[in-house]
Design goal:
Blueprint: E1 7-11, H1 15-26, E2 30-35, H2 43-48, E3 55-58, H3 62-66, E4 70-73, H4 82-89, E5 94-96, H5 97-102, E6 109-113, H6 118-131, E7 136-140, E8 157-161, H7 164-167, E9 177-180, H8 194-202, E10 213-217, H9 221-224, E11 231-236, E12 244-248, E13 251-256, E14 259-264, H10 273-289, H11 293-302, E15 311-316, E16 319-323, H12 330-339, E17 344-348, H13 360-364, E18 368-373, H14 378-385, E19 391-393, H15 397-408, E20 412-416, H16 429-449
Parallel strand pairs: 1-2, 1-4, 2-3, 4-5, 6-8, 6-9, 7-8, 9-10, 10-11, 11-12, 16-20, 17-18, 17-20, 18-19
Antiparallel strand pairs: 12-13, 13-14, 15-16
Helix pairs in contact: 6-10, 6-11, 15-16
């Protein structure tokens, strides 16, 4: 793709938008940015681009959309904008950042999608590949946009997290290894329903060929039945799969390409069967690309997980505190609950993303002593849990933490896994998780002074 002197419109100036502007300008494009926010809300982004020549338009203008040769969307921008519909009618190509980047990446891509576990899995795969002497770039949806890896030399692999938003308008994105970890209700404020959401996720396989690999969860019929030209290989925590990866008698086995590996789950720092599946996918990747077992095992046993993902942050008396602020959907919270021993006090709440909270009912019956709810969706969650577990509604996260400690009765686990987005009270899940850690630390310090 030759971008020299092409008029390119970038829609959305978030983190990905900034990376897009830099790349496009470097390629010689004439860049315009359209964002609905006023300049006062974009000061940080504009500061990062002060050395780049481009035009900024605040508020979408149809004329601007129609006078460009190419339109590139940041992940947070809906492809259903009225201006984009008109641009399509005029024959103007509209690409996602993912699609644009794939035109300029020549090394094999290992791409991971799913509702939960993406970031943990790409981090683990990246560490395994590096320990085996491979040069890899790790990023994507987690904060390092894939376009940042375009035209990089001397790489063996790119390991990328990809979201449904990125895949929604993707046609030619072509990963060598594509992984779909799981699927549960999420982002239904953007996607029409779970079927459309799944359809977006499975686009990760659409450009693959017979020389590629697709790694799939065999325990989910919707995922296991995905059609692709790639060689399909499966993982399961329910049944033995050869070739494939599976859980049996406390061991994770991975059998592929004539290799038979077994990992004892006892030494693992990662908790829960959902993390066992993330490890299974990692092992299959390692076997596909030719990694050594001892180096791979070393990384997996040393890996302690990522911040805000079922992260143990300390204890007060006999109460353990877990920060799972990245649990922004019901499926993630259910997985977190299944990973901890009872009794549990759950702290949840925030902004609903169009999902239903009823699936939490059965999960909380298995060992949750009480649920403390806060945020915009607290009433909706309370109605879903009514009769299944005692609930308490509070105003903010600090009140929720104090109440949870009282309800725990100096025993068990307090799990902060919101099942919601953070945007009613916090900038993102990271800020929310840091706030919870700070609150717990303050309470612990006060207790030690008494």
């Amino acid at each position: 793709m030759n971008l020299q002197k092409k008029r390119v419109l970038v829609v959305g100036l978030g983190r990905t938008g900034v990376a897009l502007v830099r790349f496009l300008a470097r390629e010689g494009a004439v860049v315009t940015v359209s964002d609905i926010k006023p300049p006062s809300s974009l000061k940080g982004q504009l500061r990062m681009l002060k050395d780049i020549e481009f035009r900024l338009e605040c508020g979408h203008c149809l004329k601007t959309f129609l006078e460009n040769d190419l339109i590139v969307l940041s992940p947070g921008v809906s492809p259903h904008l009225a201006e984009l519909r008109e641009a399509r009618k005029s024959g103007i190509p509209i690409l996602s950042e993912l699609e644009l980047a794939s035109h300029f990446i020549k090394v094999p891509i290992i791409a991971v999608t799913g509702t939960n576990g993406k970031t943990t899995t790409i981090a683990l795969i990246g560490k395994v590949l590096r320990e085996n002497g491979l040069c890899v770039w790790v990023g994507g949806n987690i904060g390092r946009p894939l376009i940042s890896a375009a035209r990089l030399d001397n790489l063996d692999y790119i390991v990328a997290e990809v979201s449904s938003f990125q895949l929604e308008v993707t046609e030619k994105f072509h990963p060598y290894i594509a992984i779909l970890l799981n699927i549960s209700e999420d982002h239904l404020d953007r996607h029409r329903d779970i079927n459309q959401y799944l359809s977006c996720k499975t686009r990760i396989f659409s450009a693959q060929t017979k020389d590629d690999w697709a790694i799939l969860d065999n325990d989910n019929p919707q995922i296991a039945s995905v059609s692709t030209q790639a060689t399909r290989v499966f993982f399961s925590d329910r049944e033995e799969i050869i070739p494939g990866a599976y859980l049996k008698d406390g061991y994770i086995y991975s059998c592929l390409n004539g290799l038979n590996w077994g990992l004892d789950t006892q030494p693992l720092h990662l908790l829960g069967k959902h993390n066992y599946k993330n490890i299974m996918a990692t092992l299959l990747v390692a076997q596909i690309v030719g990694c050594q077992f001892n180096a791979t095992k070393k990384v997996i046993y040393e890996f302690k997980g990522l911040p805000h993902r079922l992260e143990w942050i300390g204890s007060i008396g006999n109460i353990n505190f877990y920060n799972d602020s990245k649990g922004t959907n019901v499926g993630a919270t259910i997985s977190a609950l299944d990973s901890l021993d009872p009794p549990i006090v759950l702290i949840a709440g925030g902004v609903s993303k169009g999902q239903g909270f009823l699936p939490l009912r059965e999960a909380v019956k298995k060992g949750v002593r009480a649920a403390v709810l806060f945020g915009e969706a607290k009433g909706e969650i309370k109605r879903a849990l009514d009769g299944a577990v005692p609930t308490l509604e509070v105003s903010n996260l600090k009140e929720a933490t104090v109440a949870a400690i009282d309800l725990a009765k100096n025993k068990g686990n307090i799990l902060f896994s919101p099942a919601c987005a953070s945007f009613d009270m916090f900038k993102d899940y990271r800020e929310r998780g840091l706030a919870f850690k700070r609150i717990v630390k303050e309470i612990k310090t006060q207790n030690e002074k008494i």
